[in-house]
């Protein structure tokens, strides 16, 4: 992506907070591996499409502690204090719009859906840092009157209650008027949506269709190499329904997005995982599909080869502009971030990497909690 810096403050692209815009264009997205945003086969086609037909979509980005080297802090209160200002910068435009025109500002019920699964520790970058979620809850509770919950889903391996306990959500949310919610234990609505030639039928948690949903993914790949993203995070909340066309997991992810219609996606790129953890100290917010496209670009995955992200735009190439906000927007540099990120994949589900075990041991030493037995060679 190139940097689109307007020549003066009168430019349409100059925001009131002084942030300049980073926009993909026709000279952009060269990769050594051919995995550019705009196409799977070549390394010269852009993410940016025909702006008149596709329209320009804005994603906001902000640095956390700009100018610092990063690194993991095990104290969640310290992390939350560091995160509140940059998160406020991301959420302000969503909360300051005239009442009656914005889903988030007017919401009676907000459901936050982070990337939360076991046994990965937040310092690995494989899950959303609970401090990002906690700081978001704190901001929302100060700005709106609605109910806020943090949702996850139990699976055949572990209950969401235990996952929330290991990740620290239960103790974190006790300080707010917010609760962790296991969507597997709540009612579901049989929902049918059309995705291309498929009619996707799935059981969507009723809470997600009756509340304002904010996805909060971590920046990481899936086991298949695609960006995990907000759309796939939502798909993980679904219960299988009777599908007349036996639609693929990709179609189910798209069906979930269209049935739930999330109001916003907040991408936690404070610590990124792509073969190894990397302290990127960055956050993004915007429409879920657009944020996933930005994540695809940053991880140097192919936009064209990702059926979920590409088809979320009805196979049009989106024009996406990333606008820096926060205390130091001029230091925000997507190209430097993308070049610095590792390019590996996610470890297999049955292979917990050494950094994750080490992170849990550090966390346990500081917090007094126990290391999960799976990470110590137990059952």
Description:
The protein has twelve helices and 13 strands. It has helices spanning 51-54, 76-95, 130-143, 160-167, 169-173, 206-210, 229-235, 249-260, 288-298, 307-312, 334-340, 354-367, and strands at 2-4, 21-23, 56-63, 109-114, 147-152, 178-182, 188-195, 198-205, 212-216, 239-240, 264-273, 277-286, 319-324. The strands form two sheets. It has a ten-stranded mixed beta sheet with strand order 1-2-13-3-12-11-9-4-5-6, sandwiched between helices. A hairpin with a 3-residue loop joins strand 11 (264-273) and strand 12. It is globular. The model is unreliable at 1-20, 24-54, 241-247 and 373-379 (pLDDT under 50).
Break the fold down into its secondary structure elements and pairings.
Blueprint (H helix, E strand, L loop, with lengths): L1 E3 L16 E3 L27 H4 L1 E8 L12 H20 L13 E6 L15 H14 L3 E6 L7 H8 L1 H5 L4 E5 L5 E8 L2 E8 H5 L1 E5 L12 H7 L3 E2 L8 H12 L3 E10 L3 E10 L1 H11 L8 H6 L6 E6 L9 H7 L13 H14 L12
Parallel strand pairs: 3-13, 4-5, 4-9, 5-6, 9-11
Antiparallel strand pairs: 1-2, 2-13, 3-12, 7-8, 8-10, 11-12
Short description:
The protein has 379 residues and is of the alpha/beta class. The chain has helices spanning 51-54, 76-95, 130-143, 160-167, 169-173, 206-210, 229-235, 249-260, 288-298, 307-312, 334-340, 354-367, and strands spanning 2-4, 21-23, 56-63, 109-114, 147-152, 178-182, 188-195, 198-205, 212-216, 239-240, 264-273, 277-286, 319-324.
